[in-house]
Design brief:
3% strand, mainly alpha
Length: 309
């Protein structure tokens, strides 16, 4: 049999990062299941709270609703897959399912960064340009911004799949616990310059551009806060703190995942590599609803009234 297998011959990939945990696999299954249920319940709760209360039909909360939907989307693209793999003795995934997961994970990351960028722009308008806020953030513009976020992310993440699917592969072993596009590209038998160039461009568009916009808007917000009243500073702190915490948390996890994909991390213990590669996909969907639910008084009061009245 030829050592060079093209994409039609590779019917499945083997995920080599899994290791035998014995009876502890049932404990890991329960922990992952608990985390997934917690993520689903917390995000669905806040989506329902925002949708059912007209007082929360404001730009900031509608962007938050989009963020919470994305947390459900991303975690659903990962957690059920992890649960199946934890209980399985053979850690394989079919060719189509692998690329479907890649699309889900990548679009989740794109939408997360784009959504956080739009939210920072919303805070910038609210704090720095309050007289223009209602005009700039009209309901139809909010709908367009949210729709463009999801559409742009989908197109941006679909292109690398069209470049990777036809590749001729010399193997089918991925050294991760879930599917990753660059890990598949590294299995290619021939030149992958186009894939690598697009990967770098897409990474820049996904991370560098949104983060640059976020830092710019927050520099402007800080300038206004230092020259403004105490009330302005309090408003900025209460609404911007959870946003900045969410950005830093997700950026840390995403940056480590990029470094791990691009560089040799064999010197790092396997269990630590697994934890850090899962961090950005498991902690962010739980971190956001907790952070925003506790810090934004309007959401916190409504949730409190739902459960304690």
């Amino acid at each position: 049999m030829s050592s060079i297998m093209n994409s039609t011959q590779v019917s499945y990939f083997t995920l080599a990062a899994y290791f035998d945990t014995g009876i502890f696999k049932y404990l890991f299954f329960v922990i992952i299941m608990f985390l997934y249920m917690l993520i689903v319940c917390s995000n669905v709760l806040l989506i329902v709270v925002i949708c059912m209360n007209r007082s929360l039909h404001e730009p900031m909360y509608l962007f938050l609703c989009s963020l919470f939907v994305n947390e459900l989307y991303g975690s659903t693209g990962l957690f059920p897959f992890l649960l199946v793999q934890i209980l399985s003795d053979i850690h394989t995934v079919s060719f189509p399912l692998c690329f479907l997961q890649i699309f889900c994970v990548y679009t989740y990351a794109c939408v997360e960064f784009f959504n956080l960028a739009i939210m920072s722009y919303d805070r910038y308008l609210a704090i720095c340009c309050p007289l223009q806020y209602n005009t700039q953030m009209a309901s139809h513009k909010i709908t367009i911004l949210i729709a463009l976020t999801w559409l742009y992310a989908s197109v941006l993440c679909f292109v690398p799949l069209t470049l990777s699917v036809p590749l001729q592969l010399c193997g089918n072993i991925i050294n991760k616990v879930y599917c990753d596009n660059y890990a598949i590209v590294k299995l290619a038998c021939f030149d992958t310059t186009l894939n690598n160039i697009y990967g770098l461009v897409a990474t820049a568009l996904t991370i560098v551009c949104p983060v640059t916009l976020i830092f710019y808007t927050y520099m402007r917000i800080l300038k206004v806060c230092f020259s403004g009243s105490k009330q302005t500073r309090q408003k900025a702190v209460s609404t911007c703190t959870p946003h900045l915490a969410s950005l830093l948390n997700f950026s840390f996890g995403a940056c480590f995942e990029i470094l791990q994909s691009r560089f040799n991390m064999s010197s790092v213990p396997n269990i630590l590599r697994i934890f850090l590669s899962l961090y950005w996909l498991t902690c962010q969907p739980l971190f956001n609803p907790v952070m925003y639910g506790l810090n934004l008084s309007n959401i916190r009061i409504i949730c409190k009234n739902m459960f304690f009245v």
